[in-house]
Specification:
Helix content: 10-25%
Shape: globular
Largest sheet: 8 strands, antiparallel
Number of strands: 20
Radius of gyration: 24 Å
Distance between the termini: 34 Å
Structural class: alpha+beta
Number of helices: 11
Length: 407
């Protein structure tokens, strides 16, 4: 069971707590919060200059590749508790409560969530750092106030953790703690940052309607179909299924390809893009992809199969409302594919899904567009942003980059 625990650490005047939007009440992070995780290991990287967010993500992915065991091999790990407050991030042995590592918050330079994997990157330096310097290295510099200290090569220690669907929430919590500490620092030093008054992401979030093809299609009874497919005993169904993607209104499997000689295509009743709700009365909603695939494979010796599907086009429509570039879209892209999504953000509300390939942005195809160009288009897009996406596996099948393995 996933848990998090409030831990009293320091006394604090709640009336003076800075209001920063995030997953927690700011007073909670003033005291501290704990998340359970599995610690996989740590590795060190060398950085010669303040890196961009893109480089930081590449470093995080390199750290994961160094630490994470190859698929099929046993992954060494230690059960731990990650403690987060506005002063520090600590990692405690879950059984003995012994402190394994302890980092001042100002030394944390980047947090990345990659699926269920969390990477916390902290600086190892030969001289003291200040909070505004830490903000600068994290890409949140305070205008022209730049430290005059020498800038030599920096050693970055990367801690890699695995969680049960909490990596993004932990990353958001650390980010919120950093924002609270930053605003407290400004207030205590009498610094007036005009951007602070404009940081109300909640107003932007409230203006973003929950949008997605699913919302309209699933509420339309005409799109729901119960289909009976006749087949020969021993004959395969002849379909390929993929996950609908994290962020879907209903997490299920989608028909991504059909063999022209299979029972499904011969029936003429199923289409690429259809979302499968159940098979012979067994619900596919929330099922892991491998389990749903095994369910379909088990139909081989049956002569009559019942599918309940919702007819959906293969391409998903996305609409995000972003009034200004200072507001994060809330998702990250790697080579045109959405690889992470901020839970509850404007992107999720707008219909963005993890694991989908972006096909089009504001009417312009990005199928053959370089990664850097896609990032630039998204980084500068404001107003109502329209995108078309589809599951990456479906995209690769339809473009001939993968050969279908029919079930």
């Amino acid at each position: 069971m996933i848990r998090y625990t409030l831990v009293p650490v320091i006394e604090y005047d709640y009336e003076e707590t800075v209001d920063v939007r995030g997953p927690h009440d700011p007073s909670v992070l003033e005291h501290g919060i704990i998340y359970p995780a599995a610690y996989l290991g740590s590795t060190q990287l060398i950085c010669n200059k303040p890196p961009s967010k893109k480089v930081r993500m590449q470093q995080a992915q390199e750290a994961v590749s160094r630490i994470k065991a190859p698929e099929g091999e046993t992954q060494p790990n230690t059960e731990v508790d990650i403690f987060i407050s506005t002063e520090r991030v600590k990692v405690l042995n879950a059984e003995s409560e012994e402190c394994i590592m302890d980092h001042s918050l100002k030394t944390i330079s980047y947090i990345a969530d990659i699926g269920n994997v969390l990477v916390i990157m902290a600086r190892r330096r030969s001289y003291a750092t200040t909070l505004d310097e830490a903000m600068e290295e994290s890409g949140i510099a305070m205008g022209d106030q730049v430290s005059a200290l020498p800038r030599g090569p920096k050693k970055i220690i990367c801690h890699v953790f695995e969680t049960e669907d909490q990596a993004q929430l932990i990353a958001q919590s650390i980010g919120q703690a950093f924002s609270i500490a930053y605003l407290n620092f400004l207030r205590e030093n009498g610094i007036d940052d005009p951007s602070v008054a404009e940081m109300d992401y909640g107003e932007v979030l409230n203006s973003q309607e929950i949008y997605g093809d699913d919302l309209m299609l699933f509420s339309n009874k005409e799109c729901e179909k119960e289909i009976l497919i006749e087949k020969e005993r021993g004959e395969i169904m002849g379909i390929v299924i993929v996950e609908s993607g994290w962020g879907s209104l209903v997490p299920t499997v989608v028909i991504a390809n059909m063999s022209p000689f299979g029972a499904a295509a011969r029936s003429g009743k199923l289409n690429i893009g259809d979302q499968v709700m159940s098979i012979n009365g067994t619900s596919c909603v929330g099922l892991p992809l491998t389990t749903a695939q095994q369910t379909i494979k088990s139909l081989k010796n049956q002569c009559l199969v019942k599918f309940n599907v919702v007819s959906c086009p293969p391409v998903t429509q996305v609409i995000i409302k972003r009034p200004d570039v200072k507001y994060q879209l809330g998702f990250s892209v790697q080579n045109g594919t959405i690889c992470s999504l901020m839970r509850g953000g404007i992107a999720e509300r707008g219909g963005v899904r993890v694991g989908h390939r972006i096909i089009e942005i504001n009417g312009m195809s990005v199928v053959a567009t370089a990664h850097e160009k896609i990032v630039d288009i998204l980084a500068t897009a404001v107003g109502e942003i329209h995108m078309k996406t589809m599951p990456l596996s479906m995209y690769r099948l339809l473009t001939g980059q993968e050969q279908p393995l029919y079930l």
